[in-house]
Amino acid sequence: MHRGLSNLTHRIERTLDQRLRPAMYRDVEPVRVEAAHLPGEPVPASEGLALTYAPFAVGQPWGRAWSTTWFRFTGEVPQRMRGCRVELLVDLGFGTGGPGFRCEGLAYTPDGTPIKGIEPRTAYVPIARPAAGGERVEVYVEAAANPRFDGTVSPFGDPETVPDVLLYRLERAELAVLDEQVHALVLDVQVLHQLALTLPETDPRHHEIRRALELMLDELDVADVAAGAAAARARLAKALASPAAPSAHRVTAVGHAHIDSAWLWPIRETIRKCARTFSNVVALADEYPELVFACSSAQQYAWLKEHHPLVYRRVAEKVATGQFVPVGGMWVESDTNMPGGEAMVRQFTQGKRFFAAEFGVEPREVWLPDSFGYSAALPQLARLAGFRWFLTQKMSWNQTNRFPHHTFWWEGIDGSRIFTHFPPADTYSSDLSGKDLAYGVSNFAEHGRATVSLLPFGYGDGGGGPTREMLETARRVADLEGSPRVCIRTPAEFFAEAEREYPDAPVWSGEMYLEYHRGTYTSQSAMKRGNRRTEHLLREAELWCATAAVRTGHPYPYQELDDIWQRALTLQFHDILPGSSIAWVHREARQAYQRLAFRLEAMIVEALTVLTGPGRVPLTANAAPHGRDGVPALGVGVPAARDDTVSVSSTSDGTVLDNGLLRVRIGTDGTVCSIRDLVADREVLPAGARANVLHLHPDTPNKFDAWDVDEFYRHRRRELTDVTKIEVEADGSGSARIQVTRHDRDSVYVQTISLHPGERVLRFTTEVDWHERETLLKVAFPVDVHAAQSTSEIQFGHLHRPTHTNTSWDAAKFEICAHRWLHVGEPGYGVALVNAGIYGHDVSRRPPGDARGAQPTTVRLSLLRGPRYPDPNTDQGSHRFEYALVCGAEIADAVREGYRANLPPRRHLGGQPVAPLVEVSNPAVVVEAVKLADDRSGDVVVRLYEALGGRASTRLTTSFDLADAQVCDLLERPDAEVAALAPISVEGRTVALALTPFQVVTLRLRRAAGRR
Nearest Cα to 876, choosing from 772, 778, 744? Predict the structure, then answer.
């Protein structure tokens, strides 16, 4: 048989685009258009409906960036549309492309009831089905002139810089009849054509489908599509009725609309995006009872409840029917690299508490489809919070190495495992196209062992969600030859089946490092410092408020702390904390961190004042988990006096600081030329090396400016060694410091080097007035240790990473994330670099060229970047960084100094010391949180963990009488499985327990009645 002489693919696609889709709507009737413009912030619907409206015409421009225009569309359904499905079609000026990244709107009835979102792909408002004729039409649309971003430098990310131009033009406003037969024909053709394109030409099914489509086209009169639509559908019915093969892969399809809580829009716009998308979903759920829509992020539900209560009520109704499914159990879909341990706990507990209180549900799956890598602490925390399963697809973005599994067990640093799935279609916003379905099947790594995968469908990032076309497609591919079987159901149903089917799935141990977006550890430095400081202020506030409540009966600020935690957790969203949003988002975040710090400082001072009583005794409050200067951990005391000092001497080649433990020489160029550890009797720096050296690199990644640091940045480097001024000073505390000022181009760098008595710690402060762009600033510490691996603090423990590049997996980790400390060492000696608000690091061996002997190790901190998209002025201005080099450090020293760097002693004038509420006997066990129980029972909750990676027995002693103690889950509930992992014994005021490596234990301590 001859091959076809014409291009059937082009024929099908042209007919779809130019004949069938335009014929879906017919018999249009213009409506009257009026508009009211709001140049500033949005107003509630009640105010928008009451605005003064003026005549407006189709074709007229509207919408300065970020402004709102309220449209009123009025008219009447003509009698000729009687018996038909009538819709109002509104094109706000969408242009090409999907929803979420351009103008969008929310339609309302005259009484202010939301109807649905108006967006590309869903630009209709239902009017009547069927129409009686004569119905009066009055629809209001709140239209947002959200600007488009294309990845290039743009002024649109900040209201202060947007140009004064109108961005959009109203393109369409009319009533029209939706021809349901033509609409169905379009979907029939689309599904079969897409399926045929995925099948090889050697497959008879490929030719069967194309022959059916060709015969249909031969018979269809394209001049009168409506008249022939039913016959055309009948011609395709046999091809659509052929069932899938018994061995066909099975796809669980889940409606989805990943809405970034902030990104190329501010939070205020996210709130409206949620209202538009969720209105669409509940409307679709009425029409399609099979729809299941999974939605994470308790914060988005909370916004909806506050700002759009009518939509929220509809959502709650659909949660009750099982169509709208809360998933994830987190406050937001946060970053997981940088949030601290307790913050990750609260992401889970705040999210789960909200879903339980509002809907009586408890999600069992962690749902993080778009975060930029996944901490190895997550499996344990998720299991302790009551989760069974974990989902993401982001690891498919790896640039270098393909992740080997789609369904597997993920093992954390403590050995906990969680059943994990990656949707093999590598997307969280499928349209259920033949291409997505076929790719998901061909890409699935578990064939022969597993037969089911999950596919989220619906427009995402900027919202939109599923469409009726997607749901119609799902019906057609439920059981279709050549396609996987598609069934819409809940994520929990999928996971339960997948785990039953594949209990012996392979194990991935350790972090899931994303080989991409490494710049997010550094971009928007104020986000990093604000996050770190807020986390530690919250620790202090809970500790001192709990202590005050137990000791004095002072009211514990439950609601205030909840509110602050929720605001802080929102700022950990995976485009806010990573620094990848527009300028507007980050300006608001900086202001939010300032407000949170003010509230927390006031709370801390109030609690300490209550605790210490009146007086002028100079006290120190030590919220750190280790004692210092005679003040106990978690207590308040008078610091021990010191009479030792640091000597300062000048030489021809610099200045020497000596405290009897370290002898440090700072050269004439202001860099550290020598650190002699007098205790270990060894030089810390390699011969001829200098430390605290500022490195500048060109930083022009290939694709995503704020997100990426690409490997080739290392090909060029410039060191800052020119000195403007060096000053030496000693203070009354016996410490000594050297301040080095450097000017380079348009930026100023002031580096302070400090040595204190009694410490093997050299402390640094670097203040930068930064005016560089597309430049990466690092500070380098070469150390004379032959380290095979670096050890980085993560949540509730630490992680080892190789310093070599033996494999592509090793080489890809050229930029890594660490929390308060990073340690490198060799047997017998190590050093730690601790910091107060820095996350990006790199660790390397000596560059090739000297192959003799032990290879020194260089640790660098990433301080600043200057990306130009999406914020063209990222990090311009003043910054302050604090870090320290701990010499002769074991891991325990790194843990201790990391806490100290982030919880400086708090000076307070009062009348008396305060004993700690709790003390632990083993320094390997660290107290991470002390608070009162969330249920307001007055029970004391203590969260602690094993910090060194070994087994540790400890005794926790309270300073109050104990009635009972129990091990609970992270939500402070009794849990037999959790308790079995950490058996305890209680005697008097002492709880004895044994912890396994990196184990996190939450103790609930019930106080004896009437006793303190």
Answer: 772
pLDDT at 1012: 45
Looking up tokens 């005259």, which residue turns up? 110
Residue found under tokens 């969680």: 418
Question: Is the model's pLDDT at 30 over the cut of 90?
Answer: yes
Distance, in Å, from the CA atom of 553 to the CA atom of 743, rounded to the nearest integer, reads 55
Both tokens assigned to 611: 């605790």
* CA–CA gap between residue 831 and residue 948 (Å, rounded): 15
What is the C-alpha to C-alpha distance for residues 886 and 746, in angstroms, rounded to an integer?
33
CA neighbours within 13 Å on the CB side: how many for 583? 20
Which CA distances in Å does 59 have to 52, 98, 172, 450? Answer: 21, 21, 8, 54
Residue 969 has which token pair?
């889950």
What one-letter code names the amino acid at 576? Answer: I
Token representation of residue 826: 């060799």
**How far is residue 29's CA from residue 27's CA, in Å, rounded to a whole number?**
7
For 1, the token pair is: 């048989």
DSSP state of 19: I
Residues 807-817 pLDDT 10s: 999 999 999 99
What b/e readout covers 468-507, taking b as 16+ CB neighbours within 10 angstroms?
Answer: bbbbbbbebbbebbbbbbbbbbbbbebbebbbeebeebee
- The pLDDT confidence band at residue 734, using thresholds 50, 70 and 90, is confident
Pairing of strands 485-488, 250-255: parallel
Q: Which two tokens stand for residue 727?
A: 């000053």
- What is the spatial distance between Cα 325 and Cα 312, in angstroms, rounded to a whole number? 13
pLDDT digits (tens, 9 = 90+) for 954-987: 999 999 999 999 999 999 999 999 999 999 999 9
- The answer to whether 770 and 877 have CB atoms below 8 angstroms apart is yes
| Nearest Cα residue to 623 out of 642, 643, 603 | 603
- Give the total residue count for the chain: 1012
User: How far, in Å, CA of 540 to CA of 201, rounded?
Assistant: 67
Between CA 268 and CA 261 the distance in angstroms is 9
Closest CA to 818 of 412, 375, 414: 375
The 8-class DSSP code of residue 459 comes to: B
Chain centroid, CA 847 distance in Å: 35
Q: Tell me which residue has tokens 């050890």.
A: 791
Which residues contact residue 666 at a Cβ distance below 8 angstroms, ignoring those fewer than 6 apart? Answer: 654, 655, 656, 657, 672, 673, 726, 738, 740, 753
Beta strands 54-55 and 32-38 are antiparallel
Q: Write the pLDDT tens digit of every residue in 739-754.
A: 999 999 999 999 999 9
Quick one: 722 exposed, middle or buried, by C-beta within 10 A (0-12, 13-18, 19+)? exposed
Helix (H, G, I), strand (E, B) or coil at 499: helix
**Residue 731 pLDDT class (50, 70, 90 cuts):** confident
Please pick, among 370, 479, 677, 934, the residue that the annotation labels catalytic.
370
1006: left (phi over 0), alpha (psi -120 to 50) or beta: beta
Q: Are 187 and 476 in contact (CB under 8 A)?
A: yes
Rounded-to-integer distance, Cα 407 and Cα 446, Å? 7
Of 322, 321, 288, 325, nearest in space to 478 by CA: 288
370: annotated active-site residue: yes
Q: For residues 669 and 654, what is the distance between their CA atoms, to the nearest angstrom?
A: 8
Instruction: Summarize the chain as % helix, strand, coil (round to 5).
Output: 30, 30, 40
**Using CA atoms in the order 920, 926, 927, 929, what is the torsion angle rounded to 10 degrees?**
-170
The answer for residues whose C-beta is within 8 angstroms of residue 217's C-beta and 6 or more apart is 11, 12, 15
Mean pLDDT, residues 216-228 taken together = 95
Reading phi first (left if > 0) and then psi (alpha if -120 to 50, else beta), residue 112 is in left
Q: What are phi and psi of 498, to 5 degrees?
A: -60, -40
Dist. CA 181–CA 228, nearest whole Å: 9
Alpha carbon distances (Å) from 620 to 467, 638, 640, 641, 793? 60, 6, 10, 12, 27
The single residue listed with the structure tokens 């970020």 is: 66
Q: Could you tell me the CA-to-CA distances from 335 to 515, 569, 781 in Å, in that order?
A: 15, 10, 28
